[in-house]
Amino acid sequence: MVKQNSTIAYVRSEILEQQPAPRGQVGASKWVRENLFSGWFNTILTLVSLYLVFTLLQALVPWAFGGVWTADSLQECRAILNERYGNTHHACWAVINERWNQIVYGTFFPSTEYWRTHVAFVLLILAILPVLFDALPRKMMWITMAYPFVMVWLIWGGSLWGPISVAVGFGIAYFTASVAARYLGSGLTALVSAVAAFVWWMILGPIVVSALNDTMPLLALREIQSRELGGFVISVIIGVSGIALSLPLGIILALGRQSDLPLVKMICVGFIEFLRGVPLITLLFTASLLLNYFLPPDTEFDLTLRVIVMVTLFSSAYMAEVIRGGLAALPKGQYEAADALGLDYWKAQRLIIMPQALKISIPGIVNTFIGLFKDTTLVFFIGIFDMLAAAQAIRANSAWNGITWELYIFIGLIFWVCCFSMSRYSQWLERKLRTDHR
Amino acid sequence: MSLAEDRTIDRSKLTVSDEVAVQIVNMNKWYGEFHVLRDINLTVNRGERIVIAGPSGSGKSTMIRCINRLEEHQKGKIIVDGTELTSDLKNIDKIRSEVGMCFQHFNLFPHLTILENCTLAPMWVRKTPKREAEEIAMHFLEKVKIPEQADKYPGMLSGGQQQRVAIARSLCMKPRIMLFDEPTSALDPEMIKEVLDTMIELAEEGMTMLCVTHEMGFARQVANRVIFMDQGQIVEQNEPEEFFNNPKSDRTKLFLSQILGH
């Protein structure tokens, strides 16, 4: 080392190595000291909290884990508890065991057809996985694309021709678009392909389908009416459809809101502001009661479908605003760089803007998804037999009259597991998509 | 200035052809009521290296941003490579793919790797097959001397490295004209040199360049013309030697004394 004296000049002759931090300044011991016992007040708070948590668990754990799992009625369950503990301060989980089918499938779903919901559920997982994890083979996306049609066939039954015809409509739209794109601009292409698809769906498709059904019905399953659906199944159907449809619709609305075309902008703003300003329950009542007055007398517009449409529209308005926030957070330079490279509007959106805007919006998007999924319980009020309706029915039944906690805790737990998984997935995705400093 | 002594340029290599690359005729632009660009007339021949200087707010960035229509002009004509800039989107996209641009804040795409940043436009605008686009990208990344960073994300690179990637990204489109909008203004002093070196190399290869910059050393050494702008107008233009040693207008003298005075 250079000896330092009173002059200003100083030259370092060696660079110091990194040294370990002092003991107690890193790791768990530091965390505990800083967060739990940093002063006398904090120490008292910590001890009091520990005591409260302990008493709570002391009451809750025996209640939950000492419960009865098999009994046919509340009386029987209480008798067992009395015999075992001498009191009834324990849970009667038996209600879930005994009424499992009613909670999961609803009251009216024919029990011989339960297998269809199981198949649909397994396929659902297979269809969602490639969307969630891009490490999985891309070929699995074919399952995802076919799933909506297979699901409709599995749940509502009938011949497979109906869903195939709907899928063919999409195929026609795609084919028309790819042909028309060679001759027309992007706006006209979209219009022409939409018209072609509608002609198929509304006029040609139904004729072909009924002809095929008469001659050779394909894998016809027993038909199930929408009012027969219920329980967890209906929540998943509405929730997943709403989630899958509201994101793309929200993106379109968000882009439309920023559009330079006054008409597009006005429609999108009007749509968003109207749907955000109306309670969902109002929309659901409209779907279930009023819509019939406006539709031609013979049209059969399935109730579940109407609910899905309403839930989707409602959430897409929120989604649009969430995504608009993401768009606003992007620096202007990103648009300019995309422009300067010669990318057109749609390519810039798809390759540069949306990937970043959606990434920024992940917390808000998942927030909307979670809200949507929990809001599916509102269909209870328009007479759809979801889990809450099942709970109501079970409580009204003489066998289980008087049971409350166990049912609602269980239903709450189901929702919590679903929503918490979404939340964890979104946090994982956010970490995965972080590209700075890793 | 910050230009290092060891990197000298062989001026004999720099040739200017008679072919016109950019022609701006009586161009005017307003931001609302504010008249940002007033009667700009400028002809740039192929192979010219033009440095545009001037105080902030003088409209120099706005002017070069008009050339690839990041800003729209309201009056006058801009002809780039024989194509006039109108509101026709096809023309605009064509010109943009011929004109490369580097920004003060690099504007790399943070969600894509360095390589993907460079291959994106060739693949989606020029329809170059992926493998070929990657070869082109690696070629230009080697040219700006950072091929080893190809798989990293922009956020992991230093400012100077990011700006060199931005230059490589533009070059991947094989542009005939390059616009630089204060490419070194957001960089630490240590990193300015590496970016300027890259730009010098580009000039030596005969690239037509329009460069808004405060690097007067660069202007002196590389430019064949320096343009001084103030209040939305071209106040003076001249060859660099003459411009710096013998400025004509008072406004230019004041500007030069302010930026070279310390």
TrEMBL record, chain A:
It comes from the Bacteria. It holds the Pfam family BPD_transp_1. The keyword Transmembrane helix applies. GO terms for molecular function: transmembrane transporter activity. Residues 232-426 form the ABC transmembrane type-1 domain. One of its GO terms (cellular component) is ATP-binding cassette (ABC) transporter complex. The keyword Chaperone does not apply. It is found in: Cell inner membrane; Cell membrane. It is a multi-pass membrane protein. The chain crosses the membrane at residues 40-65, 114-133, 164-184, 191-212, 232-255, 267-291, 303-323, 378-395, 407-425. Its main location: membrane. Keywords: Cell membrane, Membrane, Transmembrane, Transmembrane helix, Transport. GO terms for biological process: amino acid transport. Belongs to the binding-protein-dependent transport system permease family. HisMQ subfamily. This is L-glutamine ABC transporter membrane protein/L-glutamate ABC transporter membrane protein/L-aspartate ABC transporter membrane protein/L-asparagine ABC transporter membrane protein. The lineage of its organism: Bacteria, Pseudomonadati, Pseudomonadota, Alphaproteobacteria, Rhodobacterales.
TrEMBL record, chain B:
Residues 22-256 form the ABC transporter domain. GO terms for molecular function: ABC-type amino acid transporter activity; ATP binding; ATP hydrolysis activity. InterPro entries: AAA+_ATPase (IPR003593), ABC_ATPase_HisP-typ (IPR030679), ABC_transporter-like_ATP-bd (IPR003439), ABC_transporter-like_CS (IPR017871), MetN_ABC_transporter-like (IPR050086), P-loop_NTPase (IPR027417). Gene3D superfamilies: P-loop containing nucleotide triphosphate hydrolases. The keyword Transport applies. Keywords: ATP-binding, Nucleotide-binding, Transport. CDD domains: ABC_HisP_GlnQ (cd03262). It comes from the Bacteria. The keyword Metal-binding does not apply. Belongs to the ABC transporter superfamily. This is ABC transporter. It comes from Celeribacter baekdonensis B30.
